[in-house]
Amino acid sequence: MDFELNEETRLFRDQFRQWVERDLLPLEEKEGIHQDAPVPEAIAKRVRMQSADLGFYAHHMPEEVGGGGLGQVVSVVLREVAGQTGSVLADVALAGPEGPSPMHVVFNAAQREKYLAPVIRGEQTCCFMLSEPGAGSDAQNIATRAEKRGDVWVLNGTKHFITNGPHADWGVVFATTDPSKRARGGISGFIVERDQYAIGRVHHGMAGFEGQAEIVFEDVEVPEAQLIGKEGWGFAQAMGFLGNGRLNIAAGAVGVAQYLLDLGVEYAKERQTFGKPIAERQGIQWMIADSATEIYAARNMVYHCAWLVDQGRDATKEMSMCKLYATEMVGRVVDRMLQIHGGMGWMRECKTEAFYRSLRVLRIVEGTSEIQRMMIARAELAR
Amino acid sequence: MKILVPIKRVADPDNANKVKVSADGTQVTTEGLEWKMNPFDEWALEAALRLTEDGAAKSRVGEVVLVSVGPKEAVATVREGLAKGAERGVIVEGNDNDLDSNVIAAALAAVAKKESPDLIVMGKQTVDGDSNVAGTVLADKLGWPIINYAMRIETSDDGKTFAIKRDLDVGVASVKVTGPVVITVSDSILHPESVKNGVTPADFKYPEAEGGRYASLKGIMQAKKKPIAEQTLSGLGVDAKRTVTYKKFELPPARSGQTTFVESVEELVEKLRTEAKVL
Ligand SMILES: Cc1cc2nc3c(=O)[nH]c(=O)nc-3n(C[C@H](O)[C@H](O)[C@H](O)COP(=O)(O)OP(=O)(O)OC[C@H]3O[C@@H](n4cnc5c(N)ncnc54)[C@H](O)[C@@H]3O)c2cc1C
């Protein structure tokens, strides 16, 4: 068994960390960027393009579409570092639903050229439109319809909670093309351009800012050239890539947990009560010990799962396990580290406060904890 | 133009609190340390890369050869330099504890004689030993001029002559020198217009940066194919002996970690004078 990362991966990771620490964190400080306000578009674009130039942004995309062709292990390594630095811009630099995704590889040559290429270069952004007011966890129940009329598709329906919705240059939308078949060949994916749809309500979450939007389709005509893959199969194809996103979330959670633990340890050594640093109290030590142990467990799950993926093995169940465990783990860790900081931990001036709010969403997005458990149980019971 | 750039891996200065001294105080224990390219060497490499490229067209027009004297593991540091753009690497194997500036300079001189570069650009010091002598001893062994603390380097004849500004405590010294020459650099060499090579357009500005350039993924992949030659001290005919021996290492006393808040600048100055006694 070999747990060492290879030389190139270490170098790539170290360059990423150095870039975040040397350039991005000071930029954040200078521009007053924090978790509760949107990153100004001009800065986000500059960071994305620089990230693309250095090879971080599309490291996970195949070389045939202009990506770095690197595997899942590298992705989790970078996501973990991004979390560990506590940097907001590091997340911009690695991109979520607004950036290139393996799902986009199913685009045909013309679609790759027109839509994907500018996103890979960091010049444009996109979004992923699946959830609807009436369908979240049960995504195959979507009500958005696409009907063929002559040589165009006509789309009607409403999507919601769409990350980057207000800023995206284009999006991938899923709509039912054959209600009798649903997930088994009845849901298709389409590329839609910014001027083809309307932005509805913009949601304001518990942490962050107005980042998720409602997207409204009213008799939107979409040419055949914007259909993704074969009619009826876009959904099934897209679902095949959700696991990678789950694993990336888990890796980020491991990194942030480590960042928070480091904050807690530092504070516990400094803060004195009853004449001694609180770090010398068993009650505090146990919070640190439990957190360190759970981080160790989650990190090894994530790395092992990424390795399985790179070996070409099916890791669907393990990806769910990683997402479930790591996102719940980071919730416990942030709670303990906030507690270690006492009253200060609850104040806006302390980092624990914003993370306490922002991390909560990780148990909801890309499949809730319950959905992960459902999938893990299904796999176990099918044996 | 061909440039030799000596580089060394050092314990990450940002993790200096991990540095431990062996129980008997005879050496610094390196276990568990993270390694990094010596920051001064990173800046020297940046200067060398700027001298040998068209910065606007992003194309190479000269050759940078990296040389590191140290343990086998230093290959990772050399590879990093290659990923940033250098052409070739040389590793002269040696145990850090058997080396001092004199041995290093002798090894570098031997490599320089083989490579005959137009100049050698190096950091003014390493952040571990902080000796600040290797460059000068190297120049002496080669019989070349030494220009220390360069903050600006210009050449318009592909490295035959250089106009150099030196960063001194008392001001800036301007010198003209004919190569081959050894130049050590200060951090001011990272200034957007600090290097002019007559190839990069004169009005071109490098981005403001806290360090040298980053290795891109493309660079990292290309570096896998770039050659790194392995040499030994004896193979190079170096029989230099250590002239410096370390008697004892001690960690600095731990800081008290106390923070005092003050209301005004006057109070701060007063406290620095009377309590901290540093003014
Ligand atoms: C910040 C944020 C960003 C988002 N970004 C996007 C985006 O970019 N694109 C996009 O398409 N969507 C996005 N979403 C939507 C997200 O994917 C959904 O919110 C998520 O899938 C859950 O769906 P829902 O909200 O409809 O909850 P529901 O599906 O209604 O679930 C409600 C509750 O019931 C539980 N539950 C559901 N089914 C079961 C079951 N079978 N067994 C047990 N429990 C069950 C759930 O776990 C949950 O606790 C985003 C959401 C948020 C909060």
Record the SSE blueprint.
The complex is a heterodimer of chains A (383) and B (279).
Chain A: H1 7-31, H2 41-54, H3 72-85, H4 88-94, H5 109-120, E1 126-129, E2 145-149, E3 152-163, E4 170-176, E5 187-193, E6 198-203, E7 212-223, E8 227-228, H6 234-239, H7 242-270, E9 272-273, E10 276-277, H8 282-310, H9 316-340, H10 342-346, H11 351-358, H12 369-381
Parallel strand pairs in A: 1-4
Antiparallel strand pairs in A: 2-3, 3-7, 4-5, 5-8, 6-7, 9-10
Helix pairs in contact in A: 1-3, 2-4, 3-4, 3-7, 3-8, 7-8, 7-9, 8-9, 9-11, 9-12
Chain B: E1 2-6, E2 9-11, E3 20-21, E4 28-29, E5 35-37, H1 39-51, E6 53-54, E7 59-60, E8 63-70, H2 75-84, E9 88-93, H3 101-115, E10 119-123, H4 134-142, E11 146-154, E12 161-168, E13 171-178, E14 181-185, E15 195-196, H5 217-223, E16 228-232, H6 265-274
Parallel strand pairs in B: 1-8, 1-10, 8-9, 9-16, 10-14, 11-14, 11-15
Antiparallel strand pairs in B: 2-5, 3-4, 6-7, 11-12, 12-13
Helix pairs in contact in B: 2-5, 3-4
The structure holds flavin-adenine dinucleotide.
Flavin-adenine dinucleotide is lined by residues 97, 127-131, 136-137, 161-163, 205, 212, 361, 364-365, 368, 370-371, 374 of chain A.
